Amino acid sequence: MNIDEYCEDISVRLTEVLDASGLGADIRWKRINTWLQIEELDKILVALMLDNTNSKSFYFGSQAEATTTNELLSDIDKVAYENTVVVLQDLQLWVFSPDNTTTFLMVTDEGTPPRYVKLQLVQRDAPILVNNYQEKTIRLDNRSRSVLCNATKITRRLTAHEYHGPANTYYTIGIQMDTVCSLHTNCWPDQAFRWMSSRNRMYNWPSRRTIDAVQTTEALLMPVGHKLSPELHLEWRLSFSFVEKLLTWQFNSTQYKCYVMLKFIKNTFINVDLREKILTSYHCKKCMFYLIENTPAVLWRPSHLMFCIDMCLRLLLSWVEGNNCPNYFIPEENMFLGRCVGLVQQNVSTILHDLLWQKRKYITMISYESIGGNFARVCQSLPMELDHVNEKTLQISFIYLLHLLELLCIVVANLKFCKLNVFKSSHGLRQEVRNMILQLLCSSLGNHLASQSLEVEIPNQEKLGMEYEFLLLGSSSDVASGNLKLAAFYLAQSNINALEELLNHVEANLTHRVWEYGESAPDEISSMILRGNLSVAKLIQHYVALMVFYGPLDIYSVPKVLIFAMFRSTGSESGLDRLAIHWIPTAAVRARVVNKLQNRKIFVTMNIPEYYKDLSIRLTEVLDASGLGDDIRWWRINTWFQIEEFEKLFARIKNETISKVCYFGSQAEATTTGGLFSDIDKLLVLNSKKVLQNLQFWELSPSTEETFLMVADDSTPPGYVKLQLVQRDAPILVNNYQNETILTDSKRRSVLCNNTLVIEMPQIEEYHGPASSACYNGVTMDMVAALQAYYWPDKASKWLSSRGRRYNWPTRQIINAIQQTGVFFVPVGHKLSSEQHLEWRLSFSYGEKLLMMKFNSTQYKCYVMLKYIKKMFINMNSREELLTSYHCKTCMFYVIENTPAYLWQPNNLLFCVELCLRQLLSWVECNHCPNYFIPEENMFLGRNLGAVQGKITSILHELLGQNGRYITRISYENIGENVVRVCQSRPMELVNPNAKTLETTFLHLATILAFASYVLAASNTVRLNALILSHGLRHEMGNIVRSLCFSGLGSHLTSQSLEYDIPNQKYLTMAHELLLLGCTSDKASGNLKLAAFYLALNNLDIMEDVLNHVAAKLTYIFGADGMLPNEDTFSKFVREDVSLAQIVQHYLSLSVYYVPSDIHSMPKVLILEIFRSTGSEPRVDTLVEHWIPIDVIVPELYLYFLQYQCYYLQGRVALTLIALSNIIWIAQVELQVLHTCVANTADVSWRRNILLRRLISLVRFTTTLNLLAYCLKQGVRPMDAFKVLCKSMKMKNHHNAAKWQIATLINSTVRVSNIRRRQ
């Protein structure tokens, strides 16, 4: 077989991912062994409950075979049967039966489908078949034979919630269980005789030893007939579950993983949108059996896993195309009959062809257990994202084991002493399990005896001694229940000292992590089980807290209040489900059953229109092409994380009161596109104030830090708090004190006013609620100053623990991570509050950001689609946003939490969007939008929705009634038009989608680096190194910061050494070394400062080499003036996963900054630019005020200017003219930028952004003109220089260094004319 190296490589990587996802050999066999012990316990339980030792039960299917994972949501398959019915294959095997036993013979005829039989009644006293006789369970077939009906009460012992074929389906402790009551025969059926003998097995699988073992196993008879048979109610299906279980256990590791991968593929691609499962796990299992039997064992290796999966898919494809899936034991049976026909057959065939055509790329699309994502990460040499998958894989088996133990406790609590003695030493259990059950029995026996002895006025001391011994033996059954029964015995005897000591012991045990009924096992316990340190018996003894059960026989030995619990039924009340009847006569101290899958069938049976699937896939394709693909998404998120790290450092340099800088919202979460014009949400955490939740955590604070306590009362709205001042030297709350920032509330408490942090912020143009808005590089930024506390507030404590999460989202690991992030206090009060100025809003922005990071691709696109719909249809003509992005985000959180993970697939995107719209509609109709973390907070209050409630409702109703047609009307990023084009099989119209999506990220990056360059130009290197180390800045970004700092420090030292007539050579040498170290900061600025250094020393040859090096490498991609990369460069960044440091070093040309301390190291003309202001000129916009005392030169302009100076001093006229023409070209380009900056839009804020960007460009343009005039003056073209300077002054008549050049030019002209006059 020709297996390429690529296939082997991805097979090894896929095996690695599956091993790490709970499908390793150790986990597999732990699960199998656990289910074997569950089977042993269940046999005892069935025998005790039915009072019949002949009853047996077995577990089959995915759970017992360990061929499922946590997210596959596989149910538990259980088969139970009794020995009261004997089934023969031949009358020669007939023997006389007891009175309570009925005998049947398996019979077939021409009309009986393969693998099905009828069961004809045999006389009790002779081997004679019965005909023409019928009763309630016996019916006559078409040949007048008396056969057993498959709807007999034997198969319907329990009342189920629903029926799936022959199975009674229950939901037990959140797990779906299918129970089948069947019959069995001890002989191998004749229909499968060929499998046993004449089958040709060229590769000896299964082995002869296995076949011989199989021959002695039982065949089961399931009460279900063939779907297409006219006598299906009289037919019984032969089941070889015992054999299949044995064969599955013999799978090697690769065969096992191949089978599980087939299930993943089946659920992800084939059955995902079909109401009825066309391909089942049973078909996949049969495919595996046939393939293993007909392939050599050497093929099934980890390096061939993908090849084996492809072989299985090809075999399934051949079966689907031939519409014949042969049963493994009885090949004459076609398991596709009545199932895979017509259009369904064509669809499944197309899907399988498509999977095989993709050449294994489909692996990355498998979302179960994050297989696809982790596979992609492993292929990129990134670490896998694992959320306790091994522990989760074990959860169901151990949860069900605990459930059986609880049922056993109930049964034992209601059994009599004689019956307990009958069963306590039977069934051949393992020693440790046997001891555990005996301890439970001893505890119950002790209670029975105590009740008997306490029934009379004078207790029987002999019995009391015996019951004490029994209770003492049973006290070690688990962590608590046995000891608590012993404590109740002490209470009945009024032995208070012994009671108190024992209760303290139990309380100490319960303070540690224990596992209780109805809950998932804690991660610590699962990890211990995983490592092999815990057996089942030790697990129950040391880490499980069973409920305490009392039965009617214990009536005198229990506290009186529990007696009422036993007699909760009066006897005349209506009956209950048979599954709940066992609770009625039993007192359970703690009974809490969590049904996690209660609503699962709602989503399984959802009526999703067929065309929704096709439209969803096409919409997904359009969104991917419009800059919303996973690669763009994660590149943007990672880039914003690095920008956040980078800015934390500079926030500390500029302002010591800022301890942290965080980015939230649409930009940082990558949930916006260029057409949405989302602003940047920036949060500054101040360290000047400390917030406590409890005074117990008070500590003495520094003199500069104030401490506050979070307080609330009945008048404080949910989600808001007040911050009461705490004394500096003691944990005492301050009252009746106020100053500028501290005011007294209605209860005379001294609380912090929420305008305090705004006062501490720099002067900003506008305020939006708690946010101060500014514009940099044409991008609006909302900055919020806040306080932070690293604890979880009590108001949101329910979100951590008591919230019922049916579908395990968010996971426990995410919840723990969110808890560690704490809470922010944002300075804004509730709009309807009378003390709005004293209230602070609780913000969980970090937690929301973490949850957004966990959105899969469909959830991510669904959220962006909600934002499109909100802006396009709901808020389009409204001055104020009726629904905000935060409402949409909250809606997403609630919908994801209450829907199964398998619903969020690309072909369900449109359906998921409408689920969210329905949720929003329900909130609008009742005018209540609950906060995700604090549901008591109504986020619609204060938004004046009453006036527009009807309008929003009608809009949402109209959208939901359009059956998805509104998608074509979305104009953002041409989404609607491109969906139409894709549906018509035409190419999409895309205009630089990546560039538009990433534009804001790069503009903000340019702004951050512009300020960083300025700050670092005048910073101390030692202080910067300390800050870099203390803030844990990534190594590569730390190097860039140091390079910028070295470049600035080199300019300082050069200026100091050249300040005097005789330069300081020591300083010059040190400055040269620093400037060389600073050359690696970016593409040009460091090298240009080095060239200026050589110019100052008149070392023109080396200067020319440096400038030629810069000119050869300089690609002006983007910088602080808003110039952006092109589409190809954007795509390269994402495709090659270029880091932020690599972008800065290899693709970015930073502007060159000079500060007044560099005055002697820069060209003379730039000294005039530093002193462009006379001091008496009017103030300028605060947003560009920082440009006034520094020089900022665009790198290309500075390159050509330095080239002109170099060639001019060398006397190379031709090259001087070329450099001059390049400077003129730059001036013309910048003039065009100025003329095109005015926005043609009605959006006032956007126009302001453009105008501010134009103002910054204007400052730079005047610098360009001034440098051009200086070069013209050097070239003896004074009139041209004068014209250029006049144009510069006309463009900006203040804060312009052109006035100094005009003065010097006039002065020099006058001097020349005077000299000529004298001559």
From TrEMBL:
Segments forming domain Mab-21-like nucleotidyltransferase: 758-852
Check the record and name the Gene3D superfamilies matching this protein: 1.10.1410.40
Q: What is the lineage of its organism?
A: Eukaryota, Metazoa, Spiralia, Lophotrochozoa, Mollusca
SMART domains recorded for this chain? Mab-21
InterPro entries recorded: Mab-21-like_nuc_Trfase (IPR046903), Mab-21_HhH/H2TH-like (IPR046906), MAB21L/cGLR (IPR024810)
Q: So what family is this one in?
A: Belongs to the mab-21 family.
Q: Which residues form the Mab-21-like HhH/H2TH-like domain?
A: 257-336, 861-941
What is this protein called in UniProt? Mab-21-like HhH/H2TH-like domain-containing protein
The family database entries (Pfam families) matched by this protein are listed as: Mab-21, Mab-21_C
**Looking at the record's lineage, which domain of life comes first?**
Eukaryota
